[in-house]
Amino acid sequence: MAEIIHTRKSLTTNPLKCSAPLGAALAYLGIAGSVPLLHGAQGCTSFALVLTVRHAREAIPLQTTAIDEVATIMGGAENLEEALLNLTKRMKPRFIGVATTALVETRGEDIAGDLKLILERRPELKDVRIVLAKTPDFDGALEDGWSKAVTAIIDSLVEPPVAAVPLYQQVNILPGVHQTAADIEWIVETVESFGLVPVVLPDISGSLDGTVPGDYIPTTYGGTSVEAIARMGRALHTVAIGEHMRAPAELLAAKTGVPCTVLPTLTGLGPSDEFVALLTEISGRPAPSRLRRQRSQLLDAMLDGHFYFGGKRVAIAADPDLLTGLAGFFASMGADIVTAVASTANSPVLADVPAARVVVGDLQDMEDSAAASDAELLVTHCHGRQASERLGVPLLRIGYPVFDRLGHTHRCTAGYRGTRNLIFEVANIVLGELHEHTPDEFAHAKSIVEETRHAGATSATC
What is the pLDDT of residues 12-57, one digit of tens each? Predict the structure, then answer.
């Protein structure tokens, strides 16, 4: 069991975590016809918008209530009402997801009460589903905001099951915040291969997958529909990925009676087997030959790649669930986790990280620890590139954000296929650091051996 260390620094110089409101906004982007609305200052939303646009390289319909100095003192209910009316009139969304920021939460406003009164007196908003998630910046990080937003969506939109209506062959999938569009596509393909119908919440594979619509659409142009969310209570089972998705999964189970299973990760042979075994149990069907072949390919990749993992000293910095999943993957391949840094301490899974200790801190903590432990590979998002340059240690970019490389949205690390790809990516990074030996190096090594032998002979004669 890893020891959890809380740093006592008074200043963060190289932040690791992204804010909870941003995590909520990302979740809202997985709903069809959606507009995420950050209830806070315009500058806060601008930073989140720029970061998300750079990461996804897509048009992001992120909006703000633009709280100013007066609204900060007097209250922001009027700003919220005006923003909802303007968005409904101009963008005609089917869904508006509101996420609060620290600016309005610190004042202690009754935002849920304000929203209820707004909806009661504004008939213009009756055709728009509006959901509120309380996500102040000072409480949690990306995983927490994503979880709270999904919980709020389930609480507001999922309808109680009707006893007279038979169950669909439906399986609810609640992906974690670090699942890419390619990860979700693999999950959907796998569920469908068992004859089941997946409903993914949120589904960024339909809204942030790099497609170009024929006409300009001001809202999200893909994702899970409001109608599909309402029917989640008529599924056979719910599968949540990551400990941060336990709260929404358990709320869905309590509200509808649909049983749920929380899988820590989908990266690695063991986690992939667990997911396939669960689908086999739910459907009553054996695993299709396509999945068996993917599993065989993964086993071959593990045999080919373990030479480049064994004994490799790895430093990882990420959100708790991503950190735990990655650390388990590297450890299963024979690597040593010499540095583990988490963005928050809000998850019980940190104790399961296969490392001596887990530091709750920032990227500076990762850099200092990696230097002291002679790490040979850094694993974090693209803000770790400066540490990589200073230490002269290669960087595996993973998580959020990754804006200095193309194709991250289509990078799969889930399941047999994704784990195989990740093994090859890491092995190729290690191979790229190796160099071919020249004749001069062999001659130099030979001279050192001869000098050692001569020194040994001289010592024996004396």
Answer: 888 999 999 999 999 999 999 999 999 988 888 888 889 889 998 8
CB neighbours (10 Å) of residue 324?
A: 28
d(CA 124, CA 145): 28
CATH architecture for segment(s) 3-10+309-413 = 3-Layer(aba) Sandwich (3.40)
Question: Can you tell me the mean pLDDT for 457-462?
Answer: 54
Q: Which value, to the nearest 10 degrees, does the dihedral of the CA atoms of residues 217, 218, 224, 227 take? A: -90
Per-residue b or e along 93-106, where b marks 16 or more CB atoms closer than 10 Å to that residue's CB: bbbbbbbbbbbbbe
Q: Retrieve residue 48's tokens.
A: 């989140």
Residue tagged 């849920």 (tokens): 112
d(CA 323, CA 44): 26
Do 200 and 188 meet the contact criterion of CB atoms below 8 Å apart?
yes
On whether the 170-297 domain is CATH 3.40.50.1980, my answer is yes
Rounded to 5 degrees, φ, ψ at 141 are -140, -150
DSSP single-letter state for residue 60: -
Rounded CA separation 299/322 (Å): 23
Query: Tens digits of per-residue pLDDT, 364-389?
Result: 999 999 999 999 999 999 999 999 99
Number of separate helices (H) and strands (E) present in the chain: 17, 14
CATH fold match for the domains 20-157 and 170-297: yes
Distance CA 66, CA 46 (A): 10
DSSP bridge partners of 340: 316
Which residues lie across from 341 on neighbouring strands? 317, 359
Domain 20-157 class, CATH top level: alpha beta
The answer to whether 220 and 61 are in contact (CB under 8 A) is: yes
Q: What is the pLDDT of residue 387?
A: 95
Euclidean distance between CA atoms 202 and 151, whole angstroms: 11
Distance CA 268, CA 423 (A): 10
Q: Where are the domains of the chain?
A: 3-10+309-413, 20-157, 170-297
Q: CA geometry: angle at 446 spanning 444 and 451, to 5°?
A: 95
Pairing of strands 260-263, 170-174: unpaired
User: What mean pLDDT comes out for the span 238-256?
Assistant: 96
Whole-number Cα distances in Å, 349 to 17, 106, 177, 242, 322: 17, 29, 16, 9, 10
Q: Which amino acid is at 414?
A: A
CA dihedral 439, 441, 445, 446 (to 10 degrees): 20
